[in-house]
């Protein structure tokens, strides 16, 4: 089954580049940049990857991102991810990156973006992996800071096609970012947002009605609200679901309780994605495989999930 799933042509629509930083590369970059780490070795770091919720993960994720300093670092990070795409027949990817994670550490805006954009271009030309970048705002920071980030990004508008919203969901509803999303749409960008990962269905309504998103990132808590479910089925609004992430962050206690296949059978346009694969135990194929092992996903369901991912692409080359 693994090889069959691996060979399925698919798109990845929910992937944080900073979350694809494998411990081996993290250590290599720390050495290259002469940064002291609080872990003795790769195994010690990996054993720290045990989380009770989103915030515990985010604290480690932002700490890990501190080894990314130069354009070459961001290139190497992105290139390593694109090679995984190639190996898993991910023919199209729409990754996120969080500029504020880097600018807040004093890394100039263009350093991260140039490294990422150059690797994505090489990925298209040398690996045949199509891609479009999503610039994601950190929702635990203010709207004003998001506006400043958009100001910094506009001179590089050709490097990305959409804006997103990520980081700590609870207490930071989509409504907090309505004006910056209005402005981004006015500048011609599509919008997506994390909603209904830990947050309630109301946050999904807000993301749809106020941020006018084209796709919901996670969205698994939509199943708690029948009226919302009807809307996302009627309008075929895609959900970028991340099964391994949801179990690692205790959104579901066990993969056997995940609702992705129930949603699929109800007609929701759900897709399978890896979110932060270096931290959650695998890339897209491993996520498909977990659904097969714990939920009995059939080949026919896998084909529909993979087709959904291709249908839900927003970036047109
Ligand atoms: N940033 C990286 N991964 C994330 C997730 N799963 N939810 C919110 N923000 C994130
Ligand atoms: Zn995410």
From TrEMBL:
Q: Name one GO cellular component term.
A: cytosol
Name the coiled-coil region(s): none
Q: Which residues form the active site?
A: 197
Q: What SUPFAM superfamilies does the record point to?
A: Metallo-dependent hydrolases
This protein's cofactor list reads: Zn(2+)
**What CDD domains would the database entry show?**
ADA (cd01320)
Q: Does the keyword Cytoplasm apply?
A: no
Which residues are tagged with the site Important for catalytic activity? 218
- Residues that bind Zn(2+), according to the entry? 14, 16, 194, 275
Which GO molecular-function terms appear in the entry? adenine deaminase activity; zinc ion binding
Instruction: Give the top-rank taxon of the lineage listed in the UniProt record for this protein.
Output: Bacteria
What's its EC? 3.5.4.2
Segments forming domain Adenosine deaminase:
9-312
Q: One GO BP annotation here? A: nucleotide metabolic process
Keyword Metal-binding assigned = yes
Catalytic activity, as annotated: adenine + H2O + H(+) = hypoxanthine + NH4(+)
Q: What is this protein for, i.e. what is its function?
A: Catalyzes the hydrolytic deamination of adenine to hypoxanthine. Plays an important role in the purine salvage pathway and in nitrogen catabolism.
PANTHER family assigned to the protein according to its UniProt record, in alphabetical order:
ADENINE DEAMINASE
Give the matching NCBIfam families: aden_deam (TIGR01430), PRK09358.1-6 (NF006850)
**What is the protein name stated in its UniProt record?**
Adenine deaminase
Organism for this UniProt entry: Pseudomonas turukhanskensis
């Amino acid at each position: 089954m693994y090889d069959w799933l691996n060979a399925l042509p698919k798109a990845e629509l929910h992937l944080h580049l900073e979350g694809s930083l494998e411990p081996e590369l993290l250590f290599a970059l720390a050495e290259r940049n002469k940064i002291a780490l609080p872990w003795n070795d790769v195994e010690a770091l990996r054993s720290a990857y045990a989380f009770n919720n989103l915030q515990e993960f985010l604290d480690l994720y932002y700490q890990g991102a501190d080894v990314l300093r130069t354009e070459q670092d961001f290139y190497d990070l992105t290139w390593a991810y694109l090679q995984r795409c190639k190996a898993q027949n991910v023919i199209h990817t729409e990754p996120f990156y969080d500029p504020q994670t880097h600018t807040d550490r004093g890394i100039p805006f263009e350093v991260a973006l140039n490294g990422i954009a150059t690797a994505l271009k090489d990925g298209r030309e040398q690996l045949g992996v199509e891609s479009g970048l999503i610039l994601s705002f950190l929702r635990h920071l203010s709207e004003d800071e998001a506006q400043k980030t958009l100001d910094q990004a506009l001179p590089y508008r050709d490097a990305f096609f959409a804006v997103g919203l990520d980081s700590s969901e609870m207490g930071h509803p989509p409504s907090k970012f309505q004006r910056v999303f209005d402005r981004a749409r006015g500048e011609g960008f599509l919008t997506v947002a994390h909603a209904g990962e830990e947050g309630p269905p109301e946050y999904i309504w807000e993301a749809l009605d106020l941020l006018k998103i084209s796709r919901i990132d996670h969205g698994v808590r939509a199943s708690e609200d029948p009226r919302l479910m009807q809307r996302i089925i009627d309008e075929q609004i895609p959900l970028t679901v991340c099964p391994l992430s949801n179990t690692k962050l205790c959104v579901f206690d066990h993969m056997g309780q995940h609702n992705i296949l129930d949603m699929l059978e109800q007609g929701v346009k759900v897709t399978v994605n890896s979110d932060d694969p270096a931290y959650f135990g695998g890339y897209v194929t491993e996520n498909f495989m977990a659904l097969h092992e714990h939920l009995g996903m059939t080949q026919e369901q896998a084909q529909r999930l993979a087709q959904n991912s291709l249908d839900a692409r927003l970036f047109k080359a």
